[in-house]
TrEMBL record, chain A:
CDD domains: SET_EZH2
SUPFAM superfamilies: SET domain
Species of origin: Amphiprion ocellaris (Clown anemonefish)
Segments of skewed composition (Basic and acidic residues): 290-300
Keyword presence, S-adenosyl-L-methionine: yes
GN (gene name): EZH2
GO cellular component term, pick one: ESC/E(Z) complex
Chief location: nucleus
Gene3D superfamilies (UniProt xref): SET domain
Name listed for the protein in its UniProt record: Histone-lysine N-methyltransferase EZH2
Keywords of the record: Biological rhythms, Chromatin regulator, Methyltransferase, Nucleus, Repressor, S-adenosyl-L-methionine, Transcription, Transcription regulation, Transferase
Region feature Disordered, mapped onto this chain: 260-308
Automatic annotation (TrEMBL), chain B:
Superkingdom as given in the UniProt entry: Eukaryota
Positions of the Polycomb protein SUZ12-like zinc finger domain: 388-455
Name of the protein this chain belongs to: Polycomb protein VEFS-Box domain-containing protein
GO biological process, one term: chromatin organization
Recorded GO CC terms: ESC/E(Z) complex; RSC-type complex
Stored InterPro entries: Polycomb_protein_VEFS-Box (IPR019135), Znf_SUZ12 (IPR057540)
Organism: Amphiprion ocellaris
Entry keywords, A to Z: Chromatin regulator, Membrane, Metal-binding, Transcription, Transcription regulation, Transmembrane, Transmembrane helix, Zinc, Zinc-finger
Length: 642, 689
């Protein structure tokens, strides 16, 4: 109990310090603001002349009247966003919504039902903190009985094993400066170790989102690793000219010997798809074996020893004395393995990039490591370069397919998820096909896949149904549509293609003011033409289930920012959003919403339904917020054909 | 009875915000309307009994907008925003532009010119009878007279002279007549009514005093049993101009005798008011008389209300209850000649309630009891071409309807005399846009289909200056500041099509024609969306709240990466830098990546070198290459540029040799302590499915 109390005190202390640091931060910001204010020319004007009562005469004081200021409508705080943000389902009710005492009194069952939606879990219940403090309590590793007891008392906190893991995690963190065992040491740090290529790049590979170009992006919870991406073309693999006097090319014998050897091995190397790579990938189950490996590395820091232990073929080429003098640090060795996987036999380039080794040293090291390094792939034999004619034909069939696809009776639009089924064509088993989505450039299938959307070849503005992208309610893909201008003029807003506004964020300047109708409203600064893009409706992307749960609260507040995105997800602009969230509903609106497929993501565009003048309030019809646009394409098309 | 739903947050899920009315009119409406709506209900009572459910629906649909328009009508009378005659489709109401100055239907213009015409005319009064309903003639027939004695006096109120304390009043008796009591209109022949003539000389200015106003005083004396009810009637007829009669000193006496009483009833009507405007036109009048002995109503206490047993009565109830005197008034050139004056017609500005009532009551022919004045005046109207207009109200999904008609071209909502069918329709359409009006030609005139406009746009279309104000910065300026630009329309000449009734026919395509405002612009005070602070004019041009990478998001991406326990500090730092770079520039295409990398090196290269992250950066590049996003050429170029930047940085270059140890240690040390505090919870391995 004493230990408990101590722990509680500690957490309290922690809280106070957190509060203080936060407070300090705020103070700093205020200071900055005040400084800025001082530098401005705006200064308070004196409104009162000083009254001297020495002579006892009545002084006249200018009187200024402060006009009453109309109060503004209620606004709950929200965070600005310009792109959707995916959040996980909340398993715990974060707070019990307060809607005034009257509502709670008259309808107490509402809160009960709400809590029931979350299996009775409300944030801030004491259970969690208790279990934590308990498990931290003693220094010695506690007996299993304690974990069992905790687990039986708080079954929702996990099983005995999980608690044990948690205990380990929490206690081991307390050792200062220690890195978690599964963490690769910093390659720029002093503790850099010589590790395999995959391990060096593991963080970058797993965290990078190929769709957002960001690490650990806000939108896509699962990222494909690059293992199965094929190289588009074989770029300058080998420099033809030696890079200097120390260049390995100055040793013709070795080069010839190496060159002769490589072709035979090449076929083995990378062709096998994921298999060799996934073996070496240090995913969770294989971590133990990997760490053992690297542990041995740590002991024998000398690279030669390591190299010897690893390579079956020991040093076979003793070239000259200077090679032995080269001392390879762990970082250098790791870097070498990384680069050899990209540059293959281009030792000059590798040496240039490593910076601290000559290409000859690199070459020698490569010879030592020859057994474990990857080989440059040959030309992709299974994917011959496209012929123009074939592309034409492909395009034509696709255009037909667009219509066929959308003619289907299904009214559902499903979220796109890149497909990944190696050595399997995109047939009826492909998730993209079953969800009636096109394969995108993010799919792992071949670029020749029949289910891929080919993009448009328009030379016009892509704002009619002549454009296959427009017809398929997609924005033009700058990597596919190369003629319409969607891939040009990144810096200017003058793009000839009018079908790429959402991705470019070419939104209009919107202004917030109390609405003429209800609450706040949003007003446009500049006039817009009919069908012009106004803004994207951004918010949190939540699952349909989560939307149901949140919707219950929003309905009670009579205020909802939920917007159906597709069958799987809903956009909720309550907590995060952009200014267009203030657009009100109208049955006679001046804007319309359209859910579009934008580079693999469904996004909601708000467009002008008619020409809108300066300063007009924007409205759209909430009722047609569904993925209607996507749904009805087929029907319209059918009529045209008939 | 009016609740206005201005909900706290914007629109939300509510489906009906489209026809929420504009705030201003609604609020005022709520305050004004209870009284009049009660009155309307009482009038409509008989109908409600018949088809109550149907009526409920009718009220539901039309009551609220009708009340709003009735309120606006009153407000426009008190404080007009514009004059109807200035509207193009009402141009015929404008007398000045027209040569036929005196033939106008515009009452006021007409009256100013009439005074001179009237001078040569005699005033002829023909009395139909004195009606007092609460007596039962059959019971008291043996000792009741069939007539009462009526004395008519012409009251001249003169201008004050210097000595006078109050305005001198002259009473000129014009004659006494016996008027039949409660005559049966079927029995009496029209020619036998007593008649009186007031000479035109009487209206000429007298020598001694300048006469300010003329009025007729009717005094009816009646002997008989005393009226035990003590019925009191206020002045009911609106023609009795209380305010304009400066002093009414008249006190009628009641002669009380033992068994018998003489009751005296008086009423006064203004002929010319102090502005010398003629108030009494040709027509049949029914004047409500007042028993004087009970309650001498002084001018001060005069009100417009009618009181019966403490209950509020609609003004026209007086006519069925109280004592009234009916007479016909004519202005004649000679004693027996024709009328020289035009016929009085219901004024747009008067009797508004009556026309409203009449409209609600049903067809005009049925409404015998109430609006006598209006009805009677239609008799001399007869020669005019009569146009019947049927209003057909569509409600409850267009299935039910209710037809109502009236014979003139007054707007039923604001009683404006539109004179022409086209003007009426145009007026209805433009001024009462809460309804949809469709014109349907009809053999007897016109049918107008009235339905509720579901798409009514209640947004503010008035003068922006009226609602525009800039709070918050009143005293915090020093020298000139930028002002908000406000658009004013000086002249607007929209393209006008030739007036044609066909424009009111129901359109087939169903496309609702939009009436947009001509004035557009930023006619309101805007607010910052993050702070709700007013937006100052100088802040208008920049959209301050549309950053692609708001601060919270930049912080979020950093903390999110910090949470990883199995990502080292070097990696984290490069990833953070790169993420911020991408967020700032918003790259969207694969083929932008080569460019993006080079830009990254340019912008962050020095930082990467200082923080000793070169190798991590190289790993990042290789990883990008693995994803097929950059070429090896880009890697080469980027690293070469990085070297170049490194050489340009002076202080780092010195300890080039041991930089790996020194600064790396610093970097590592930093990162470790910082990450140690953060206690990450996530692992990257959990991210791969």
């Amino acid at each position: 109990v004493v230990a408990d109390a101590e722990k509680l005190k500690q957490t309290e202390k922690c809280c106070t310090s957190m509060f203080n640091t936060n407070r300090q931060k705020i103070m700093e910001r205020t200071d900055i603001l005040n400084q800025e204010w001082k530098t401005r020319r705006i200064q308070p004007v004196h409104i009162m002349t000083s009254v001297s009562s020495l002579r006892g005469t009545r002084e006249v004081i200018p009187l200024k009247t402060l006009n009453a200021v109309a109060s503004v409508p209620v606004m709950y705080s929200w965070s600005p966003l310009q792109q959707n943000f995916m959040v996980e389902d909340e398993t715990v009710l974060h707070n019990i919504p307060y809607m005034g005492d009257e509502i709670l009194d008259q309808d107490g069952t509402f809160i009960e039902e709400l809590i029931k939606n979350y299996d009775g879990k409300v944030h801030g219940d004491r259970g969690e903190t208790l279990s934590r403090t308990n498990s931290d309590a003693s220094k010695k590793f506690p007996s299993d009985k304690i974990f069992e007891a905790i687990s039986s008392m708080f079954p929702d906190k996990g099983s005995t094993e999980e608690l044990k893991e948690k205990y380990k995690e929490l206690t081991e963190q307390q050792l200062p400066g220690a890195l978690p065992p599964e963490c690769t040491p910093n390659i720029d740090g002093p503790n850099a170790r010589s590790v395999q290529r995959e391990q060096s790049l593991h963080s970058f590979h797993t965290l990078f989102c190929r769709r957002c170009f960001k690490y650990d992006c806000f939108l896509h919870p699962f990222h494909a690793t690059p293992n199965t991406y094929k190289r588009k073309n074989l770029e300058n693999l080998v420099d033809s000219k030696p890079c200097g006097i120390d260049c390995y090319m100055e040793y013709p014998a070795g080069v010839v010997a190496e060159r002769a050897k490589t072709p035979s091995k090449r076929t083995v190397g990378r062709r096998r798809g994921r298999l060799p790579n996934s073996n070496s990938r240090p995913s969770t189950p294989t971590v133990s074996s990997e760490t053992k490996d690297t542990d041995s590395d740590r002991e024998g820091n000398s690279m030669f020893a390591e190299g010897n232990s690893r390579c079956q073929t020991p040093v076979k080429m003793k070239l000259s004395g200077e090679a032995e003098a080269a001392d390879w640090s762990g970082a250098e060795a790791s870097l070498f393995r990384v680069l050899i996987g990209t540059y293959y036999d281009n030792y000059c380039a590798i040496a240039r990039l490593i910076g601290t080794k000559s290409c000859r040293q690199v070459y020698e090291f490569r010879v030592k490591e020859s057994s474990i390094i990857a080989r440059a792939p040959t030309e992709d034999e299974d994917t011959p370069p496209r012929k123009k004619k074939r592309k034409h034909r492909l395009w034509a069939t696709h255009c037909r397919k667009i219509q066929l696809k959308k003619d289907g009776s299904s009214n559902h639009v499903y979220n796109y998820q890149p497909c990944d089924h190696p050595r399997q064509p995109c047939d009826s088993s492909c998730p993209c096909v079953t969800a009636q989505n096109f394969c995108e450039k993010f799919c792992q299938c071949s670029s020749e896949c029949q289910n891929r959307f080919p993009g448009c070849r328009c030379k016009a503005q892509c704002n009619t149904k002549q454009c296959p992208c427009y017809l398929a309610v997609r924005e033009c893909d700058p990597d596919l549509c190369l003629t319409c201008g969607a891939a040009d003029h990144w810096d200017s807003k003058n793009v000839s293609c009018k079908n790429c506004s959402i991705q470019r964020g070419a939104k209009k300047h919107l202004l917030l003011a109390p609405s003429d109708v209800a609450g706040w409203g949003i007003f446009i600064k500049e006039p817009v033409q009919k069908n012009e893009f106004i803004s994207e409706y951004c918010g949190e992307i939540i699952s349909q289930d989560e939307a149901d749960r949140r919707g219950k609260v929003y309905d009670k507040y009579m205020c909802s920012f939920l917007f159906n995105l597709n069958n799987d997800f809903v956009v909720d602009a309550t907590r995060k959003g952009n200014k267009i969230r203030f657009a009100n509903h109208s049955v006679n609106p001046n804007c319309y919403a359209k859910v579009m497929m934008v580079n693999g993501d469904h996004r909601i565009g708000i467009f002008a339904k008619r020409a809108i003048q300066t300063g007009e309030e924007l409205f759209f019809d909430y009722r047609y917020s569904q993925a209607d646009a996507l749904k009805y394409v087929g029907i319209e098309r059918e009529m045209e054909i008939a | 009875d009016q609740t206005i739903f201005v909900t706290g947050e914007c629109g939300g899920t509510s489906g009906n915000s489209g026809h929420i009315m504009s705030g201003a009119s609604c609020k005022a409406n709520g305050a004004v309307y209870p009284a009049s709506s009660a009155m309307m209900n009482s009038v409509k009572k008989p109908k409600m009994e018949q088809i109550q459910a149907d009526h409920e629906l009718f009220l539901q649909a039309f009551e609220k907008p009708t009340q709003i328009y009735r309120f606006l009508r009153t407000r426009n009378l008190i404080a007009p925003i514009f004059l109807h005659r200035t509207l193009t489709f009402m141009s015929h109401r404008n007398g000045r532009s027209n040569a036929k100055r005196y033939g106008m239907s515009d009452m006021f213009l007409f009256v100013t010119g009439f005074f001179f015409v009237a001078l040569s005319s005699h005033l002829q009064l023909t009395f139909t009878g004195f009606f007092h309903k609460d007596e039962k003639p059959s019971q008291n027939s043996e000792n009741e007279q069939n007539s009462v004695s009526l004395e008519v006096l012409l009251v001249k109120v003169c201008h004050k002279k210097r000595k006078d304390v109050s305005c001198p009043v002259k009473q000129v008796p014009t004659g006494k007549k016996q008027v039949p009591l409660n005559p049966d209109s079927n029995q009496t022949k029209p020619g036998s009514y007593p008649s009186l003539l007031v000479s035109s000389n009487e209206f000429e200015p007298s020598n001694s005093h300048m006469v300010k106003s003329y009025s007729l005083l009717f005094r009816v004396s009646r002997t008989g049993r005393r009226d035990t009810n003590g019925l009191v009637n206020g002045e009911a007829n609106e023609n009795i101009d209380v305010t304009d009669t400066p002093s009414r000193k008249k006190r009628s006496l009641s002669h009380r005798e033992e068994g018998e009483t003489t009751e005296t009833y008086v009423a006064q009507m203004t002929v010319f008011d102090k502005n010398r405007r003629l108030q009494l036109l040709d027509g049949e009048y029914e004047v409500s008389m007042q028993g004087m002995e009970d309650s001498p109503v002084s001018k001060k206490r005069a009100t417009w209300e009618t009181i019966l047993d403490g209950k509020r009565l609609p003004p026209f109830e007086t006519f069925s209850q109280g004592p009234t005197l009916q007479f016909t008034l004519r202005w004649t050139g000679d004693a027996s000649g024709k009328s020289t004056a035009p016929v009085a017609k219901p004024l747009a500005t008067r009797n508004s309630d009556s026309s409203m009532q009449q409209q609600k009551k049903g067809t005009v022919k049925e409404s015998v009891s109430t609006d006598i004045q209006t009805r009677k005046e239609q008799v001399p109207c007869e020669p005019r071409q009569k146009l019947r207009i049927f209003y057909q109200f569509l409600y409850n999904n267009n299935t039910r309807q209710q037809t109502e008609a009236r014979d003139d071209l007054h707007c039923p909502w604001c009683t404006l005399n539109c004179s022409k069918l086209y003007s009426l329709l145009k007026h209805l359409k433009l001024s009462h846009s809460r309804f949809i009006f469709n014109y349907v030609p009809h053999p007897k005139g016109a049918r107008i289909d009235v339905s509720i406009n579901e798409c009514y746009d209640g947004s503010y279309v008035g003068n922006p200056q009226d609602i525009h104000s800039q709070p918050g910065f009143a005293f915090s300026r020093n020298g000139p500041v930028k002002r908000t630009a406000v658009t004013h329309i000086l002249v607007c000449r929209p393209k006008r099509t030739k007036p044609s009734l066909s424009e009111f026919l129901e359109s087939d395509d169903g496309e609702l024609e939009q009436q947009r405002t001509y004035v557009s612009g930023h006619n309101r005070l805007y607010f910052h969306s993050d702070s709700c602070m007013p937006l100052r004019p100088q802040e208008m041009e920049v959209d301050s709240e549309d950053e692609r990478d708001p601060e919270w998001l930049r912080e979020k991406t950093a903390t999110q990466l910090d949470e990883f326990t199995d990502v080292n500090e070097g990696e984290k730092e490069v990833m953070k830098l790169w993420n911020l770079h991408v967020m700032k520039h918003g790259f969207i295409a694969d083929n932008q990546m080569n460019q993006a990398i080079m830009l990254f090196v340019e912008n962050r290269g020095a930082h990467i070198i200082r923080r000793n992250l070169c190798r991590n950066f190289l790993l990042h590049l290789v990883s990008m290459h693995d994803f097929n996003l950059v070429s090896t050429a880009t890697i080469d170029r980027a690293m070469a540029r990085l070297r170049q930047i490194q050489e340009e940085l002076p202080d780092i270059e010195e300890d080039q040799q041991d930089q790996t140890l020194v600064s790396a240690a610093a970097c590592n040390g930093n990162a470790v302590t910082s990450s140690g505090g953060k206690q990450g919870k996530r692992t990257k391995s959990a991210l791969t499915d």
